Amino acid sequence: MSRDYRNVIFWLTLSVLSVNSFAQQSENSMTKKYETTGSVERLDPAINELIPEGAEIEILASGFDWSEGPLWLESQQALIFSDVPANKIYRWSEKDDLSIYLNPSGYFGDRTDKGEPGSNGLTLDNEGNLILCQHGLRQLGKMRSSLDNPKEDYENLADSWQGKKFNSPNDVVVHKNGGIFFTDPPYGLDPWDEKELDFQGVYRIKDGDLSLEIEDLYRPNGVALNPDHSILYVAQSDSDRARYYAYDLNQSGEVVSGKMLLDVTELLAGGRKGLPDGLKVHSSGNIFATGPGGVLVFTPEGEILGTILTGQSTANCAFDTDENYLYMTADMHLMRIRLK
Fold it and tell me: What domains does the chain contain, in order, with CATH numbers?
């Protein structure tokens, strides 16, 4: 047998083994079973175009103090998310399961009376850097290291307004023009009594300049942008006024006007767990917003199509790149549901 022929046989064999290995991994992934919970409340048939009938809520991991800020990393085919009281960010993937991604994630001090010191909302800027809302540091931070080699080394993007420290930056979203919107309710200060600002704002950083875009909301929480980045959605985590707002943006990405989009306060009276918190916008324009009962799905006009009933107070949610799944951080759990 010639040397060239032996090489051909070798590479053909290696290719077959590689294909078989990939097939086995795919089969293992598809056959992996997770505990399921909850249900989907379908109020309008249109929800079936987003969440297929029969889709189940899977519990991927548990045991967290308060899970938050889920973010899909396409390059790693993995999800990262915050455990705020534990001051950690975890990483989960179908292949590798659960591991610690960053520790500490939001606070370097040693005060043990701080209830929620860690990172909260997470996102990527337009250059692929990890942006973190850091409760304990009371700042919007940027991880200086790469996503693939994370280190607890953070740049302070902003930590105060007109000389007064932020409350505790909570959630964040990046505009296509590079502007970064973030909210600043006081949750990370509790039980501290160190508030310096007498309001809870929604801010924007653009080209290093900080602006106060919204200052008349009580406990602004989750933020998201519609598909063309002309509307900013903000959730208000107020048990007396549990609402979602929509704000029009101008060509420069600044807030120019706003309105209440949906009030779900009555759902709290019915005993459903959870306040308006994190939210994400589907490519269809429909909003997936955590709130009473789990994750509400509603139209850009504020019509509720249904609710993913997690059975837990649900903090936030995130899509993977292709919107195959919606991942949800629900109290002690990380969950997901398949989308259509």
Answer: 34-338 (2.120.10.30)
